[in-house]
Each structure stands twice: as C-alpha cells, then as structure tokens.
Amino acid sequence: xxxxxxxxxxxxxxxxxxxxxxxxxxxxxxxxxxxxxxxxxxxxxxxxxxxxxxxxxxxxxxxxxxxxxxxxxxxxxxxxxxxxxxxxxxxxxxxxxxxxxxxxxxxxxxxxxxxxxxxxxxxxxxxxxxxxxxxxxxxxxxxxxxx
Length: 147
Prior knowledge:
The protein is mainly α. The protein has one domain. It has helices at 3-6, 15-43, 50-70, 81-110, 114-131, 135-146.
C-alpha cells in the first residue's frame, strides 16, 4: 500500500460528522464577522495606535502556526475514528479562535475597531484553512497521525 492511499480523505469520515464540522466551522467564521460589526457599533472606527494593529495581526499569525504545530496531533487516549478527528477539530477551533477573542479585547483597549478589522481577513483565512473540512485538512490530519 503506498503512502498516498493510506492518508484518510474527506470521504473516510461519516457524513454526519462532516455536516457537524462544516456547520460549526461556518458558524464560527460567521461569528468573527458579527464580532466586527458589534465592535464597530460599540467603540467605533476611530484611529488606533499602530502597535495595537501589529499586535492583532501577530496574534492571528501566531495562532495559525500554533494550530499547524499542535492542532493536528492525535490525542493518546483516542486513537481512531471520528471522535479523534472531532477532538483535533475542537483543538484547532480553540487555537484559531483565541486570537479573535483577544483581538476583540484589543479593540476595546485601543477604543477602536481598526485593529480587529485589519486582523479580520487573516483570522478568517486561518480559520478557513484549519477548520473547514477539505481534502488538504484531512491529509494534514492523516500525516500527523502517521508521524
């Protein structure tokens, strides 16, 4: 059996799990846009210190790379099946969502939605890569479980 055929594909997870993961992914990504609107309404879009903007973007980038490093590792007590994938999904969700929540706090500290709005496209891209179920995400999961 060659290595490519041993890597799980999207079809290897049950349809119910695929629907659950897809629904949760899109809901969380949609929530980041809702946070942007809420932040714009509450604090406004005034000027912000450039350090807050840079910090917001760096938090998202750090979350992206932490998710690559730790989000695809298998939990020792859960070795196979959809439960292992869902556990990894929830870990990636936590890792990619923490920078978003910290950026909301930075928006309130800066008294401007600008830091959050600048980091928003990076947050959505990071979440899309790590949360939305695709063949490449399944491959990353499969490779991490082999190594």
